[in-house]
Amino acid sequence: AEVTAKKWYVVRAISGKEKKVKELIELEVGRSKGMKDRIAQVLIPMEKFYQIRDGKKVSKERSFFPGYVLMEADLTGEIAHSIKNLPNVIGFLGAEKGAGASQLLAASLQ
Question: Of all helices (H) and strands (E), which one includes residue 73?
């Protein structure tokens, strides 16, 4: 198999549907052999917060960037197109109309 450089991309999703989008991307990856080599990981940045409920401190998680799913991938060929056509996906962050996805700088992920 050829070795290609994977870069980070931001997939824009309908707010509240980030988990569903992540599941759908992972399902696509599992179904398609070509995607398995091209998509390394799909992440939803989460933050923990505490809430007082019935006098008890309850730990909960919420999306750190609502409406965004991070993806480490090599978006060559039809992969970007397949992801854009998934339900609840708006497109890629920074993509011009009809253009491909723009990559995220590694420094901004830290």
Answer: strand 68-73
